[in-house]
Amino acid sequence: xxxxxxxxxxxxxxxxxxxxxxxxxxxxxxxxxxxAIAEAGADWxxxxxxxxxxxxxxxxxxxxxxxxWRVDTLKRMVPTQQKGMLTATMPFSNRTEAAQAAKKDAxxxxxxxxxxxxxxxxxxxxxxxxxxxxxxxxxxDPAYAAALLAALGPTRFQxxxxxxxxxxxxxxxxxxxxxxxKRASDGLPGLLAKAFASAESSGRLGTEWQKxxxxxxxxxxxxxxxxxxxxxxFLTKVATNLLNxxxxxxxxxxxPNWNLxxLAKAFAxxxxxxxxxxxxxxxxxxxxxxxxTIRSSGVPAYEQALAEALDGALKPNFGVDxxxxxxxxxxxxxxxxEHSLWxxxxxxxxxxxxVSRVLAKNIGPILDKLARGQADQAARDAYETAKAKKAxxxxxxxxxxxxxxxxxxxxxxxxxxxxxxxxxxxVASETLRKAGTxxxxxxxxxxxxxxxxxxxxxxxxxxxxxxxxALASLMLSGxxxxxxxxxxYAEWLAGNILMPVDFMDQFVPVAGKIPGTGKAKVLDEVxxxxxxxxxxxxxxxxxxxAETVAADLVNAQVDAMIDSLRANGQSxxxxxxxxxxxxxxxxxxxGAVTGALKVRGG
Length: 602
Description:
The protein has a two-stranded antiparallel ribbon. Helices cover about 70% and strands about 0% of the residues. Residues about 500-520 have low confidence and may be disordered. With about 600 residues, the protein is mainly α. Helix 3 runs parallel beside helix 5, helix 20 packs antiparallel against helix 21 (about 455-480) and helix 23 (about 515-540) packs antiparallel against helix 24. It is flat, with a radius of gyration of 33 Å. The termini are far apart.
């Protein structure tokens, strides 16, 4: 047993870096100094200083290695994020002692495994597990773990996993089930996985172990990453390799694919790694998110595990903002791609999707980016259309409306399909609608009166209105992909049409505002009228076209805003101002309403 130690990891890391700088100075000085001594010959004074320099360099080097070993071991023994002093009793007194113990334990395991290969009995396997029990409490030492793995080698290491599966989880032919994974974590695979984590995360493994990712069977790799937490770098290597393997590369391709489930669970336990994986590996992330992957895995729990991982990686303010944003973009591009089976595919819909619900729950902070993308695209399309028609003064897109990078790479049509995928789940669709309403309310557009308050206020109001209308447009476009009843569809459509004016009393001075209950009653009445217009169209009770119905819906909701102004004794807008209000409040929504009604059919 080693001694009781207390180390401040941050201070130790700083000292290690300082010693490295000292070694660098000594290393750069020594050649020139030795050449000068050789040239001076007998005239050189202080020859003993060269020896001192060599000893100082060696002292720094040895001290670095010893201190790093102690810090690495302590960090694994006391897994905490706290700053300051960490204390524990080291398993070994020094690295040499740790390595010697590891070689001895590896030899015992190897000998027991050899006897098991001869007898292939339950008793002989029990002797292997007994020999492996010696690893308990020792594998946290990186020097011990590295020496142990070096003595076992990748082939025997994998064989120990395989033999454990054959003896303790014989029916799990395509990855461990949750019950088997729990036994693995508590048994021999867990000890080996912890040893691997200790050695790999501290940089003590040779290249042959890195190559193991390319050749090891899928079930062994997923058992390795679920039996003990591995480094983010290694987990990502395992994920990218597995997700690039041919779909039928497993020995039993028709069995339930618990490998996918275990990979998702490993990512759920390491949300930072999953966030970076989503951001930096769009192809492999797309495979995990693919509707066919989810449906064909044979493991219903896979989608829930994937949802847990997504929740951890995409929740607001977690991780690095830039990485989280790129992760979101890749998720949206995958689910909302043109050929996505999430929508309009032979797999049907996803009406009870934990993935959809998690994405809708966390989407609030990025709605502005998505709305800006749609608004800017619509503005640019309007400008190009006007130019093509030889307009003398085509409408110039509003300044400061376009999304910043990397959101400017996201196609609004992809976002609309993404919304459509989420909208297939009633819970997710309602969460998405509420998030959109909250986004529009938080704009507080009433700060910028649209009439008679100067160009700045009018421009600011229009900017906000364009974004509010654009978000509603995206949701309306996406709703075309949701397979709901006519009543559900009418409810959704009416709610989204009202989104840009759900705060209509914000234009009214505080003294004249409608009380909350009164406003809600007015909005409910307006919504009911909109629903009737939509339902009559869908039921074929009106000869109106989709274009006519859409125009009626636009006019009805803007009329509600003007009625509110009248009811509160406010001065009514002029005819021209009313026309501007209809255009600004709805943004580019009219086309989306028309398109949604056409797709749904009447």
